[in-house]
Amino acid sequence: MFCRSSSGQGTSAEAGSGGPTVRRQSEFNPETALSEDECKEASAFISHSSDEDAIKEKMKLTFDYHHNMVLDPMQSSDILTVFPQFKDIKGLIEQNFVLMFGEGVSGKLLKWITAFKKKVIQQCKKLPSTSDLEELLLAAESPTGDSEEGVNFGWDSDLSSIILLLYLIPPSAQGRKRPGKSGTNIEEHLREITAVAQPYLLAAGPWKSSVHQYFIVLDRHAIPCKSTSSLGAFDELFKAHFVFGTSYNIMLHNMYTFIQITVYNIDVGKVKESSRVAEIVNIVFSPVLTEDYIFSRYSVGDQLGKGGFGVVYEGRRLEDDLKVALKYVTKTEDMECIDIPDHPVPLPKEIALTFLANKGHRVPEIIRLLDWTDHPDHFIMVLECPSPCENLVEFMRRHGGSLDEYTVRQIMWQATNAAHMCCLRRVLHRDVKLENLLINRETSEVKLIDFGCGDILRMSPYRSYHGTAAYSPPEYYSRGEYCGWPATVWSLGILMFAMLCGHFPSDFDLHLLQYKRWSKPGLSKGSCHSMPELSVFTTTMTELPFSATMQANCYGSFTTVIGATTAPIYQPSPYKPRGFCHDHLVPDTPKSLLLQKFR
């Protein structure tokens, strides 16, 4: 990222048309600053932490370090790479500005309205009266009072009227211009405005009277504003020039851009957004805009695997040498994108489901999604890469083709917890199988991977199945539909059978299981009798509509799968398996039963 001036000549240290050209004395006490090595450690923490308060505190302690980087033309290109949270955490621009000039200076503009509002209204009353002017004056005079407390400074507030009145003082020689609409290719717009004037404000909403969020755009990075009011956003834009050391044009041309996220004057909840709007929003708000983002942060190594899904490569994160896996997936014409909470644009389903499965407290049995980039014809996912690890097919091959009971119990305990937490987070994995479970050869830690066959979990039945046929629920073949919870339980039962026996159950095996007559030499009675319970449960599912009560029974079946073997759970150091998140259990599920099954 290079902080260009309004003339495209570089940072504010060079000649510009205005803005912060002189380094000012910081209000920050350097005694509390960190050393360079400590700053690098802090930047690593900032990049990986999700605790906003901790990030702001670390950014405060590293202020001198990152501000010197902004002021140095040779390093200014690195500021948003070294401190990427500038693009994500609201309030960091305000915090930096306060450290530079103090609270008094920082709050001046937001308090300015009490001094100039009456003067603006007084001057505008002298203008030739029109219906538009009278409407603006009426809006500007209400609500009354000298305090801004309790006043909504949005685009439909008295403040927006004040801003519009300011445009009328004095009247232009050509008179008022008729309002109009214009459009341009978003790539062309971003390229041109980046070259001539930045940073600038970008507002998004269904229409200008209903702005949902303001962003400061700097070199195609959309940095969210802390304020949700127009005045606060303009104030933050002014401060961004000082925080990032950029020049600004004297007339502040192109300082504001509005993107309407729906068709003009049509309610957002009643129509689908146009493809043009989707393109604009995707380009501007996508967290990663180009492949250069990935390749500038990660080194790509040897190929780890290849299949119908795409190609997986090993890699390293450059900032801390963390081992990662980079998954390259080519898009097909029918590849589905879905909307998820807290993300402005639809994402490819695999990215979205992996993101949702990781949302909330960390679950060590689910592979972590570290980064991604989305493009028209492909997407790239950056995933956690445990080492040394292998999938369960390779693990079983090294152990003679099947596994003993206590090893199976250890693996099933973790696989079931992963599937359980996915369901709680409304994610149906739909492909829990040997190939999609990685096991660490040293710690026996298991991780669920590959959400490409999944879907959003719902209570209503599914009528298509995209997982592996050997794990598909029998009700799908008997009546053409299945429900997510019991299908997940069934796949876990098949997984357990395959690990214990070294093969998938045949029709005859399933027949014996249903009547509790199945057995295998060398297996305990508990193992032989647990799988019939699973079979009977799934058979019941084929005959009854799925309900909340059935969902509760699924929890019991989860524990049936895990409690199958009687051997003690093997817990290698330092990894220690964790149980279900008991606070998320449905009311119908007895905690004591779950605890008894797990322990």
Automatic annotation (TrEMBL):
Biased composition (Polar residues): 1-14
Keyword Nucleotide-binding attributed: yes
Signal peptide segment: none
Catalytic activity, as annotated: L-seryl-[protein] + ATP = O-phospho-L-seryl-[protein] + ADP + H(+); L-threonyl-[protein] + ATP = O-phospho-L-threonyl-[protein] + ADP + H(+)
Annotated region described as Disordered, given as residue ranges: 1-33
Chain ranges of the Protein kinase domain: 298-599
Organism superkingdom: Eukaryota
Entry EC number(s): 2.7.11.1
Transport recorded as keyword: no
Keyword terms, alphabetized: ATP-binding, Kinase, Nucleotide-binding, Serine/threonine-protein kinase, Transferase
Family: Belongs to the protein kinase superfamily. CAMK Ser/Thr protein kinase family. PIM subfamily.
Transmembrane residue ranges: none
Name recorded for this polypeptide: non-specific serine/threonine protein kinase
